[in-house]
Amino acid sequence: MCDLSRREFLAGGTAFLGLAAETELLGGPIPPGMAEAGAADLIAPDIYFHEGHVSDTADAVCNNGWIIFEDYVLVVDANFPAGARLIISKIRSLTDKPIRFAFDTHHHGDHAYGNQVFVENGGVPVAYTGVIEEMQRYETGYYGNKPGRWEEAAKGRADLRTTRLKPPSVLFSKDLIFDDGKHRVELMHLGVAHTHGDAVAWLPKEKILFTGDVCVNGPYNYVGDGDVGQWVATLDAARQLGAKVVCTGHGPRSDGTVLDDQQAFFKALREQVGRHMAETAPDQAKAQVESIRAALEADARIARFVGERGADDSFPPQVEKVYEELTGKKLTALVDEPPLARRAHARSHGIVSV
Ligand SMILES: [Zn+2]
């Protein structure tokens, strides 16, 4: 048996062995957190999930997915360059088929800065047109103006200094479908959410949804580039797909309830900020942040989305953003309050200059 056919055989065998267990799983709710972070997780035949690790130093920061079609592999998210190399090596241990496409769910560094690595390995970065608009807005260095986010992020990540930004070159304005008769993947822009350029990957046959950061599973919501009000509506569109498996942008994979829970978190946050802060002047309003945090933490369904106090506290910037959306005013008293926390959390999304 030659190398190629043995590898193909082993990959097929793994898929076959996983099939029995997964068929059972797909029939019922999947306990959150069952996949081990860092391991390639076979969700259904030829369809994999890989959980990244939200930290400054991890190779693979965002979650990835890949689908092995008959003739090629489509990867969901390009990750940081070190993450791209890791994902490519994991795919290479499963199949020799060309890794033809890397789909950027949005423009953030932890999802798109590995594009050039995929290009050097024969892949083409693919994205919704809104990703290019966001890159033009924030990646000013690439487009001939002052240094932008890439240059800032490169100060803290060595892997960025050995490669370059590569904006996606295959673009879609609404959706793009990959279908070889066996597998079907629909890339779709469902609306503004985590950014103004998010898209998801929907597998209608298996009812698997790769959300990018439209949905996360834990305290990983970075809201600085999106719109929380519109995000709630976009999550409605995602919920209507009827996914049985949801592979979020960060945190363990889950079932469809993670979409409900993340939406409930944003609805509660908007309701609390509206009730306790909207009528309050910016310099007074910040006193409400901790009582709002406590109210959301008391709700078991949404508590996991609330950041904890400390270096990675994602909560004050979320309150600040919602206050701004509801009142049109900046919550000035909070702006400098948790600069370390804000930067640490943003940095995990590949953003430093915020
Ligand atoms: Zn992001």
Task: Describe the protein in words.
By secondary structure, the chain is α/β, with parallel strands linked by helices. The strands form two sheets. It has a seven-stranded mixed β-sheet. Strands 8-9-10-11-12 form a five-stranded mixed β-sheet, with no helix packed on it. Helix 7 runs antiparallel to helix 8 and helix 8 crosses helix 11. The termini are far apart. Bound molecules: zinc ion. The site of zinc ion has 7 residues, from loops.
Notable characteristics:
354 residues, alpha/beta, seven-stranded mixed sheet, 13 helices, 15% strand, disordered N terminus, binds zinc ion
Oligomer: single chain
Mean pLDDT: 87
- Count every helix, treating DSSP H or I runs of 4 or more residues as helices: 13
Structural class: alpha/beta
Low-confidence stretches: 1-35
The largest sheet, given as strand count, sense and whether it forms a barrel, is:
7 strands, mixed
Total DSSP E strands: 12
> How much β-strand is present in the residues?
15-25%
Ligands present: zinc ion
Helix/strand order = HEEEEHEHHEHHEEEEEHEHHHHHH
- Proportion of helical residues: 25-40%
Span between termini: 55 Å
